[in-house]
């Protein structure tokens, strides 16, 4: 590890200040942005555990395996969101501010790691600036749900510095510190599984602990690989987590839906597209739909490009080791998201997945420019090219970030970039319905149903839009279709019940409850609606039995507890009614119906 002089420290400080000012100028617009309606509800706005902030119960929840959320194991990412809620509440501006600060910290950590590893100020500054200003990273920074990407990135770049500290003077405590940072990153996002391999690349260059061209390189490689065994063991332990939940396992898209040949072809083409987007970051979108097919000429051409580039950079290892190291960094760290293993809604590629992989391309670009700048009469031209490139990226980034203002702007932008896909139309329609523009929503939903007549989400949202505009008969047609297409989802069932009740079709509503309660995941919601229907049709004894059954399985069901207490009160069982009203107040302190019920109990002598 190079010891910086006082002059070096001043240069480093001035660069960090300048970098910070530009990053904050570009991203400060996000401080007034809203949450979006894709993934943000799952991670923050509709997540009761996260919305409660940091407390013993939420921390236990964060480290638990969740059957109702089809995601990978990410407890540290959950804790990061909880901490944000603890500080900012549900103010989206505060959450965006945190994301910007973490991204800035990551850029600074990358700069310091490269600065101390290579000793080159210009190349390290260029690489960090490319990373900080690259338009593709707008996805990870401006999307609150992508906090996992930023947090795992923070532990990644911190781990690089910690590893440098360890290699300078190997000690167990320094090794364990690096291992701890890696573990925290892995518990934030699984892309950290490639971190041990990235450390091996750093051993080749710039740390030069391994010379693969030397005859003794094999024995040195074995020694360094053994050094990383604890990292690989922790990685293997993480891979156990999907098997702890059948929900996580069932989330994988089977080969019968997307064959492995198509996945492989798409991965090859996507790698080349990532390189193109790095060089020319235009037409960026929140979504790049997975292709129905990939022309053979495209996949073969992409394979030739990847193989040729790898061979080209490998042949220049001795003089320019940063080329092959940066290239393998890019290829390797992007591999977990290449699509060979697919989950639901998996796109062909995603800007957020390039956050750490693009570091390799930033290193290749920056250190290549530095090499060009050492040639006679070339330094001024190189400086001009570098500054022009950074200014152009910063300008494009500023425009790209602006698209993340809210759900409407980001998905309208997506539709201007991609061909048909239901996701942008669904999210636009949902936002319009939420804001009282159901008529506008129908046009987007109509487009989906024209392409996909059996799209369950489109039928549900069309039913909701028609319900909001008062067209109950047509709403019922779409909602019943949604119920039949998605038997496990209780949302279309609940809305169908609302329509039937408005039409005074209470018998049909009760039949629907009886038919669907055995199929839906959230049986408590349908069970409560069934009990309430019985109560409203003056079948109080049947309602009491249904509620007793409900509370036996879901004792914390607040609405069920209050309704059960109300039935007991009507039966003049004051003591038991009072007990359940009190229980409701414990579950929901200050609940007006529970408080009113308790007062009525106390008035009876």
Describe this entry's structure for a reader.
This protein is mostly helical and 605 residues long. The chain has two domains: 6-408, no CATH class; 556-605, no CATH class. It contains 31 helices and no strands. It has helices at 6-27, 40-45, 48-51, 56-62, 75-88, 92-118, 121-133, 138-142, 147-168, 172-186, 195-204, 217-227, 229-238, 246-250, 260-279, 296-315, 321-334, 357-373, 379-402, 407-417, 422-434, 438-451, 456-468, 472-485, 491-502, 506-516, 523-536, 540-553, 558-570, 574-587, 592-603. α23 (456-468) runs antiparallel to α24 (472-485). It is elongated, with a radius of gyration of 28 Å. The relative contact order is 0.07. The model has no long low-confidence stretch (mean pLDDT 93).
Distance between the termini: 82 Å
Number of helices: 31
Radius of gyration from CA coordinates: 28 Å
- The helix fraction, in percent, is 55-70%
Q: How confident is the prediction overall: mean pLDDT? A: 93
Strand content: under 5%
Structural class of the secondary structure composition?
mainly alpha
Which outline best applies? Answer: elongated
Largest sheet at a glance?
none
Query: Low-confidence spans: pLDDT under 50, at least 5 residues?
Result: none
Extended strand count: 0
How do the helices and strands line up, and which of them pair or pack?
Elements: H1 6-27, H2 40-45, H3 48-51, H4 56-62, H5 75-88, H6 92-118, H7 121-133, H8 138-142, H9 147-168, H10 172-186, H11 195-204, H12 217-227, H13 229-238, H14 246-250, H15 260-279, H16 296-315, H17 321-334, H18 357-373, H19 379-402, H20 407-417, H21 422-434, H22 438-451, H23 456-468, H24 472-485, H25 491-502, H26 506-516, H27 523-536, H28 540-553, H29 558-570, H30 574-587, H31 592-603
Helix pairs in contact: 1-6, 1-7, 4-5, 5-6, 5-9, 6-7, 6-9, 7-18, 7-19, 9-10, 10-13, 11-17, 15-16, 16-17, 17-18, 18-19, 20-21, 21-22, 21-23, 22-23, 23-24, 23-25, 24-25, 25-26, 26-27, 27-28, 27-29, 28-29, 29-30, 29-31, 30-31
């Amino acid at each position: 590890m190079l010891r910086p002089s006082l002059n070096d420290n001043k240069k480093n400080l001035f660069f960090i200040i300048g970098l910070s000012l530009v990053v904050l100028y570009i991203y400060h617009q996000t401080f007034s942005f809203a949450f979006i309606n894709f993934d943000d509800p799952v991670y923050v706005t509709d997540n009761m555990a996260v919305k409660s902030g940091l407390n013993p119960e939420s921390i236990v929840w964060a480290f638990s395996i969740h059957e109702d959320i089809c995601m990978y194991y990410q407890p540290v990412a959950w804790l990061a969101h909880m901490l944000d809620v603890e500080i900012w509440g549900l103010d989206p501006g505060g959450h965006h501010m945190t994301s910007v600060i973490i991204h800035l910290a990551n850029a600074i950590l990358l700069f310091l790691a490269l600065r101390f590893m290579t000793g080159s100020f210009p190349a390290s500054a260029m690489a960090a600036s490319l990373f900080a200003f690259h338009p593709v990273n707008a996805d990870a920074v401006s999307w609150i749900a992508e906090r996992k990407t930023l947090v795992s990135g923070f532990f990644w770049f911190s781990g690089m510095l910690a590893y440098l500290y360890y290699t300078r003077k190997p000690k167990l405590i320094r090794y364990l510190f690096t291992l701890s940072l890696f573990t925290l990153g892995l518990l934030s996002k699984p892309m950290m599984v490639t971190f041990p391999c990235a450390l091996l690349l750093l051993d080749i260059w710039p740390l030069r602990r391994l010379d693969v061209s030397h005859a003794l390189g094999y024995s040195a490689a074995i020694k360094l690989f053994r050094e990383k065994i604890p990292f690989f063991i922790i990685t293997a332990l993480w891979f156990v987590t999907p098997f702890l939940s059948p929900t996580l396992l069932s989330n994988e898209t089977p080969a019968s839906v997307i064959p492995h040949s198509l996945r492989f072809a798409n991965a090859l083409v996507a790698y080349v597209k990532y390189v193109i987007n790095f060089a020319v970051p235009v037409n960026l979108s929140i979504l790049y739909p997975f292709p129905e097919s990939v022309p053979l000429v495209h996949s073969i051409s992409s394979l030739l490009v990847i193989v040729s580039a790898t061979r080209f950079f490998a042949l220049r290892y001795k003089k320019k080791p940063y080329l092959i190291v940066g290239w393998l960094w890019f290829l390797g760290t992007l591999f977990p998201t290449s699509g060979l293993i697919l989950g639901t809604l998996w796109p062909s590629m995603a800007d957020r997945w390039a956050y750490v992989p693009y570091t390799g391309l930033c290193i290749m670009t920056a250190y290549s420019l530095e090499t060009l700048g050492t040639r006679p009469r070339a330094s001024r031209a190189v400086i001009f090219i570098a500054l022009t490139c950074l200014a152009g990226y910063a300008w494009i980034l500023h425009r790209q970030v602006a698209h993340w203002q809210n759900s409407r702007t980001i998905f309208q932008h997506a539709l201007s970039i991609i061909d048909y896909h239901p996701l942008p139309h669904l999210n636009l329609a949902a936002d319009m319905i939420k804001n009282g523009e159901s008529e506008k929503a129908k046009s987007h939903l109509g487009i989906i149903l024209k392409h996909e007549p059996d799209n369950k989400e489109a039928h549900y949202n069309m039913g909701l839009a028609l319900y909001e505009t008062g067209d109950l008969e047509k709403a019922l047609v779409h909602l019943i279709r949604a119920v039949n297409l998605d038997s496990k989802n209780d949302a279309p069932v609940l809305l169908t019940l609302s329509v039937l009740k408005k039409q005074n079709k209470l018998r049909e509503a009760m039949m629907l409850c009886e038919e669907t309660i055995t199929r839906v995941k959230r049986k408590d919601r349908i069970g409560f609606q069934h009990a309430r229907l019985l109560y409203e049709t003056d079948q109080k004894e049947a309602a009491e039995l249904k509620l007793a059954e409900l509370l036996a399985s879901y004792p914390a069901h607040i609405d069920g507890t209050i309704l059960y207490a109300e039935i007991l009160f009507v039966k003049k069982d004051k003591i038991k009614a009072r007990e359940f009203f009190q229980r409701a107040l414990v579950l929901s302190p200050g609940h007006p119906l529970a408080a009113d019920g308790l007062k009525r109990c106390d008035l009876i002598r």
